[in-house]
Amino acid sequence: MALATGSRCAVVVALGLLLAGCGSSSTAGPPPATLTENDFATDPGLSIAPRQSGLTVLEAVDAAASDAPDTGTRGVDEIPFTVEAAETRTYAMDPEDASGTVARIEVLDPAGAVVLSLAPGAPRASVALLPGRHVLRLHSGYTVAGGETGAGRAVFVFAPRQAAPVGAATAGGIARVEPACGYWCMVWMVSARRCDWCDLSHANLAGLSLSGTDLSRKDLTGANLTGTWLVGADLIEANLGEAALVSATLTRAKLTGATLRFAMLAGARLEGANLARAYLYGANLTAANLTGANLGDADLTRAVLDSAVWTDGRVCAPPSTGTCR
Prior knowledge:
Radius of gyration: 20 Å
Number of helices: 1
Oligomer: single chain
Shape: elongated
Order of helices and strands: EEHEEEEEEEEE
Helix content: under 10%
Largest sheet: 7 strands, mixed
Distance between the termini: 45 Å
Structural class: mainly beta
């Protein structure tokens, strides 16, 4: 897991896992639902356990050597996870994912033996896991020449959905009907196309490459996306309320109907982004670049636009609140 910039792949490991004995957060409150490479770099002893997700950055197989923290070797990342009780898991690679971002996935038992291996030719398998600390090993399948500079390919591994029975009541007494999700409810799936049911609220995604990633309708409330690459990312109807997007690159991003209430977008690059019907109440867009962006029916009430480059190339004169002066 390298933190260096350049061609790399963001790999979200949503193993349906909860944090196991991490205890490394410097802030009060529960840990985020998704641990990221930033968290692992800070504390290599972190482990994930039931119902928590993880995210790492997988380098190209021929990436240049770097002094940045790495959980494995060049082009290989290792993510520890804890199994609390003996169980059988089925892992699968998304048959509609033809990106070739991940060439092979292995599961290692507590003794370090490979107990499962997945590849495009054998994309689905089940494995019996005993309690203990295991490792998910990811092998890169792309090269520097085949990867976009500064714009990784997100690869997700997410667990079977833990759905309530149809018609089950919520804590508030309101009946909830769970939609059928069929085959993919039954496996831990690896996909460069999607991350169903991932919760990225308050996740530390700063500086990661998530360009082209499908994050539509995801909860990114309070997430740290400072300096993150999100070129062409699908953020349609995503909740980015109070998220930090300072100096993030969102050129051509799809943000239709997204919630960006009180989001920090100072210095963000939003050229050509689609912000139609976006809710930007109180957002800070100081010095952001909105050249060519679509702001049709967007709510900019109380949004700070000082020194921002407007859609037509004008620079907004301070103070500009809610509209470009």
